[in-house]
Amino acid sequence: MGRKLISALLGVLIALALGALIMLLQGYNPLSTYAALFSFSLLGWSPLATTLRNAVPLILTGLSASVAFASGPVNLGQPGQLLMGALFATLGGLSLDLPPLVMIPVLLLLAMLGGAFWSGLAALARHWFNMDEFITTLMLNMIADYFTYWAISYPLYDAEAFSPMTPQIHRAGWLPEFGDFNSNVLVMLAAFGALWFLFNRLTAGYEWRLTGQNGLFARLGGVNIERNYLAVMLVTGALAGLAGGLVVMAGPHRFLKGLGANYAWDGVMIAVVANNGLVGTLLYGLFFSSLQTGALGMELITAVPGEFIQVLQAVIVLVVVAGRGRLDWLLERSLARQKARERAA
Question: Mean pLDDT throughout 28-39?
């Protein structure tokens, strides 16, 4: 665990150094740029609260991808599952009027149900027709995109709006705020804790990890591959759906065009960078959220284009993923040499 953390930190530092080199070649000051970037995302309660709020969908979709990839299924349907979770939560928020203590859990469950329903379609397609979830989840993303756009443009359209969107959900379904901090962070942390316990402490999680590492060995060992496949697809879909529901419930409290943004694809990217580790996904999600949150302030203060953050994210992915094996080897070699010197002494 320690070596993995050091390797990840080295990868990020190398990527930041390469980003600084790119800025120098373009005539920008990297020190002032990075200072502005992180001051607008981490320094102060309001920037930190915004970073945490923006990190929630990144982390949840990243956890969805991490659990799926580590367990075997190649679930790439997080964008569609997020949208369907947001739609289910919006429908519940528009049609139900319950006390907040009941309304909020109900909407969260509806969001998870929407995501699980959409990933379950891909799981059933594999079970009935032997269709690869890699293809079906990607296809379902497009269907979810067009279906939700139709829903907010016609049956759920807000007649007072100037662009496709639904009316706001009932206020009882709004997530409470504590100053600048939104409680969506607490929901995300609860989901992370439950998922970590399931994945690392329960038999089901052990079977999922075993199947992801060696499916044949797991099958020969008596693991029910098909049952676990369905469970993984439903759980990962529910996580992505929960992300969509939280986006709606934390604000803008309605489903509007472009709601999903790039949250889900960024979450998949974070899962890849974290090597499908749950803790790594949480930490990288916070880090990438800080980069994206501070981009606007960085551009205002230093005139460095906000698109530079996309370049920096790409560099981080390339360096961390491509250099992961090499950095681990260098660390192991350094530790081996240190132990050899201690023995010789």
Answer: 94
